[in-house]
């Protein structure tokens, strides 16, 4: 099982100072699944993701990607960071941000080949940001920034895409663009991990869920773990959300 | 009378009547280019004041090297400056990582303590001096005219190597500064890169202090990049403008300092750099005040016309 898993996390603990944000978490995610990472604010979702992509050193535990140690497996991984973590004042155009997706293959000084150029163009077209290429990144709207980030990830390519709250505070057009990308990646057999907040859309978007609140609450196929009981364990007493979300999905 | 004296000095300067003028000019331009490039990343990363701390922290090293050697051995002074500047920068980092001291306070502590120690050491050297110490206080405010041709070549070689190193790591540096988590996810060792950047900062400061002085070297790391910020939309163009503004400030600063006897090179350079910054702040195409207000007025007029219809 572990070898066919795109992501295998074993006993992962990540902390800030003395406070463990992610505490002894273990789970495995099958290759080719669309995975939602769900939990309340401060549950350690972003921290967990940073541990997986290598942005934060774990205090304990092991991450294996596609059966390999994380350092090697990360060559197949593409990260879409949270919008709040970026220096938006930085002097860079949207096109340059997307081009960053190719830097791993071009290296320090390597020139952009025709293939690199084409990958960048195709990525920008597929999320509808081609005409923004020469705009300063900080001047774009939240939704446009998110799409530029997605384009950078698509230009980079890979087998495992890890996205930190791509849906937070974006307009409807961007939300549907992101959903399109998710579906397309799913059809291509890629594995996608998404930190997600909106319980209403969870069972629509994802076929696998990881529910955490510092510790792992549940991990498994959506129809198995997206239950009132698990959500109550994850969110504490706030069950009102749960009933409403079930009504909504029943109505739609 | 007075005027003709200035014209004479200006002529001396531009005709390179004395060799030391050429060396002073070269060293000042070098300072502008190197600090303009390294400063670009420093300013964007929010480390501007770290340059200030590092600059002030070089003074005990300069004084210590003099005390050990007994005279102003050029390489020893550079090495001493690099050692104590580097220790200063690392101390800021160590203090800031602790739970009780924020980075700005850490910078304040390191800057004042190192500078205070350096001043005390200089005072001690003056009192016990043998005459060898003459000119050591030039490191405070800078004196480009004191640079010899041999020193200039060494500084230029180090400066060129530094610029090439920054150019080589331009992509990872820009990625780390823009989006550190993403940079790590594509395998960039940001911890090592950051140490490299701090090393580049220390070297840039050390090769600059003789011309611009430890007190004001930070200005050459901060002001030209801020000028570039108002002129460029992309990092590469910002860095180029920053180096141009730095080089021009260095050259004109050396000239002003030569023209008005008694004005040290450092303050002269800073004043010129500030004049360039003022121009960029007003007229720069990327957020300059005049440009923005014209744009805003035009937008308002468009709205008004739209409303009248």
Major β-sheet of chain A, in short? 6 strands, mixed
- The end-to-end distance of chain A, rounded to whole angstroms, is 36 Å
| Spatial order of strands in the largest sheet of chain A | 6-7-8-3-9-10
Radius of gyration of chain B: 21 Å
Give a short summary of the structure.
Chain A is of the alpha/beta class. Chain A has helices spanning 45-53, 70-73, 94-99, 103-106, 114-126, 142-156, 172-187, 202-205, 222-225, 228-235, 240-251; strands spanning 5-16, 19-30, 34-38, 60-65, 68-69, 77-80, 160-163, 191-195, 208-213, 215-221. Chain A has a single domain (2-251), classed as Rossmann fold.
Task: Provide structural commentary.
- Chain A is an alpha/beta fold and 252 residues long.
- Chain A has a single domain (2-251), classed as Rossmann fold (3-Layer(aba) Sandwich).
- Chain A is built from 11 helices and 10 strands.
- In chain A, the strands form 2 sheets. Chain A has a 6-stranded mixed β-sheet with strand order 6-7-8-3-9-10, with helices on both faces.
- In chain A, a hairpin with a 2-residue loop joins strand 1 (5-16) and strand 2.
- Chain A is globular.
- Chain B is globular.
- Chain B starts with a helix and ends with a helix.
- The mean pLDDT of chain B is 90.
- Chain A binds chain B through residues 17, 50, 53-55, 71, 74-75, 77-79, 81, 85-87, 89-93, 96-97, 100, 103-104, 108-109, 136, 152, 156, 162, and chain B through 44, 99, 168-169, 171-172, 174-175, 177-182, 184-187, 229, 232-235, 237-238, 286.
């Amino acid at each position: 099982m572990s070898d066919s898993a795109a992501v295998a996390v074993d006993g992962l603990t990540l902390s800030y100072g003395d406070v463990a944000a992610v505490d002894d978490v273990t789970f495995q995610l099958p290759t080719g699944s669309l995975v939602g990472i769900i939990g309340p604010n401060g549950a350690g979702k972003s921290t967990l993701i940073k541990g997986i992509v290598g942005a934060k050193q774990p205090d304990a535990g092991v991450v294996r990607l596609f059966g390999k140690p994380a350092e090697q497996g990360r060559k197949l991984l593409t990260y879409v960071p949270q919008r709040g973590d970026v220096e938006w004042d930085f002097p860079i155009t949207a096109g340059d941000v997307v081009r960053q997706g190719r830097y791993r293959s071009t290296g320090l000084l390597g020139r952009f080949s025709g293939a690199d150029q084409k990958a960048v163009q195709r990525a920008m077209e597929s999320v509808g940001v081609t005409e923004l290429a020469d705009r300063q990144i900080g001047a774009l709207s939240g939704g446009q920034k998110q799409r530029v980030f997605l384009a950078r990830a698509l230009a980079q390519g890979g087998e495992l895409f890890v996205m930190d709250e791509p849906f937070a505070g974006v307009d409807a057009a961007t939300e549907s663009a992101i959903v399109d990308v998710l579906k397309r990646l799913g059809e291509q057999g890629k594995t996608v991990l998404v930190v997600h907040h909106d319980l209403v859309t969870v069972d629509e978007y994802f076929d696998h869920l990881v529910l955490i609140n510092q510790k792992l609450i549940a991990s498994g196929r959506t129809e198995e773990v997206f239950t009132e009981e698990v959500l109550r364990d994850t969110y504490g007493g706030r069950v009102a959300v749960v009933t409403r979300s079930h009504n909504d999905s029943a109505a739609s | 009378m007075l005027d003709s004296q200035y014209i004479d000095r200006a002529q001396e300067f531009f005709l390179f009547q004395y060799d030391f003028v050429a060396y002073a000019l070269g060293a000042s331009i070098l300072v502008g280019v190197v600090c303009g490039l390294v400063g670009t990343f420093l300013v964007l990363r929010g480390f501007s004041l770290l340059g200030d701390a590092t600059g002030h922290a070089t003074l005990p090293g300069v004084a210590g090297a003099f005390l050990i050697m007994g005279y102003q051995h050029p390489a020893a002074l550079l090495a001493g400056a690099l050692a104590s500047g580097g220790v200063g920068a690392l101390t800021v980092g160590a203090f800031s990582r602790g739970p009780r001291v924020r980075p700005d306070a850490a910078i304040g502590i390191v800057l004042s303590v190192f500078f205070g120690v350096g001043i005390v050491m200089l005072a001690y050297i003056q009192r016990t001096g043998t005459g060898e110490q003459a000119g050591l206080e030039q490191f405070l405010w800078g004196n480009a005219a004191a640079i010899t041709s041999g020193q200039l070549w060494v500084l230029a070689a180090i400066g060129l190597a530094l610029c090439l190193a920054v150019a080589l790591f331009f992509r990872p540096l820009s990625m780390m500064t823009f989006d550190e988590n993403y940079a790590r996810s594509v395998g960039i060792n940001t911890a090592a890169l950051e140490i490299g950047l701090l090393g580049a900062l220390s070297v840039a400061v050390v090769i600059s202090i003789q011309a611009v002085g430890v007190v004001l070297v930070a200005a050459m790391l901060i002001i030209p990049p801020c000028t570039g910020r108002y002129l460029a939309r992309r990092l590469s163009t910002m860095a180029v403008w920053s180096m141009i503004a730095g080089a021009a400030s260095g050259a004109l600063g050396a000239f002003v300092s030569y023209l008005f006897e008694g004005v040290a090179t450092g303050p002269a350079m800073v004043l010129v750099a500030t004049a360039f910054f003022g121009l960029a702040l007003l007229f720069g195409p990327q957020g300059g005040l005049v440009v923005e207000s014209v744009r805003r007025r035009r937008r308002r007029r468009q709205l008004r016309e739209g409303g009248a219809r």
